[in-house]
Amino acid sequence: MKKILATLATLTLAAAAQAYPDKPISIVVPFAAGGPTDKVARDLAVALSKHLKGQSIVIDNVGGAGGTLGAAKVAKAAPDGYTLLVHHIGMATSPALYRKMPYDTLGDFEYLGMINDVPMTLVGRSTLPANTFPELVKWLESNKGKINLANAGLGAASHLCGLLFQQSVKIDMTTVPYKGTAPAMTDLLGGQVDIMCDQTTNTSGQIEAGKVKAFAVTSPKRLTTPALAKLPTLDESGMKGFNVGIWHGMYAPKGTPKAVQEQLNAALRAALKDADFVKKQEALGAVVMTDARTGQAEHKKFVEAEIAKWGPVIKAAGQYAD
């Protein structure tokens, strides 16, 4: 009887995988709508749908706690391929930032492949007296104790970049966390905060429109996109070795049928070659993944390495969340 039940279960899973997808798919973005990860996910959803029988893909924004609330929702979802997660580097930094995690980063997800790599920009409110990076450093030094540094919340990409920036300039700033990058950018535009380190996917349009002042990029080399081409790197500006890139990956709940995982990985790889998707990403300064990390195994190996890389840096800063 047990063998019969096991066989029936296997046949049921196989049939479900063959029919997949036969209803809309939800991609959870663990940050507020309008932020950089949200933009990546929405553009990706359009490209993915073409390779998943044209099924609708709905974006579900579940912000809060540095992305851990949204990730936890996916970890606890039915492992059927209809609830996915698009997350950034926070997937690797959260284990060091949070003493208590509502999921096991390496054990509670199926790794489906990486999406892109996004440089970051150091930007400030338009009314800042500084116009260049050296001028910004002088302004920071003369305004110690008065500087407000915005981020999208503990564990967010902007928090990590801002943390490293503070360590590099050796100037303490008042960190102002928000529930997502969009509200943080809104207050930067309104002049309620002074500076922020954020992904090019969120800052390029504001820089091009002249709504914020841009001082440098965090990549090892200068970028070529029109809005960012004139910006120096932090490395060439005196912060040797400063290099922060914010990658994105796609995940499913642990236990998702292998056949469904393979379908999703194949659809992801195809989407990463979609001309419209690539064009939109490049316009924002993002580099679409083309290497082995688009594969499931290499994606997981990379995240394991990132956890090992950033854990000591975060712990040295002594910033934790309960």
Structure described in brief:
The protein is built from 11 helices and 10 strands.
Q: What is the helix fraction of residues, given as a range?
A: 40-55%
Q: How far apart are the first and last residues' alpha carbons, in Å?
A: 48 Å
Give the beta-strand count.
Answer: 10
Which second-level CATH architecture of the largest domain applies?
A: 3-Layer(aba) Sandwich
Radius of gyration: 20 Å
The residue-averaged pLDDT reads 90
CATH class label of the largest domain: Alpha Beta
- Whole-number total of structural domains: 2
Class inferred from helices and paired strands: alpha/beta
Q: Sketch the major β-sheet.
A: 10 strands, mixed
- Approximate shape: globular
Helix-strand string: HEHEHEHEHEHEHEHEEHHEH
Structure explained in plain terms:
Strands 1, 2, 3, 4, 5, 6, 7, 8, 9 and 10 form a ten-stranded mixed β-sheet that branches. The longest helix is centred in the C-terminal third of the chain and has 22 residues, at 296-317. Helix content is 42%, strand content 19%. Helix 2 links the parallel strand 1 (25-29) and strand 2 (57-61). Helix 2 crosses helix 9 (258-271), helix 2 (36-49) packs antiparallel against helix 10 and helix 4 (90-97) runs parallel beside helix 11. It contains eleven helices and ten strands. The termini are far apart. The chain folds into two domains: 23-118 and 246-317, D-Maltodextrin-Binding Protein, domain 2; 119-217, Periplasmic binding protein-like II (D-Maltodextrin-Binding Protein, domain 2, 3-Layer(aba) Sandwich), CATH 3.40.190.10. The chain has 322 residues and is of the alpha/beta class.
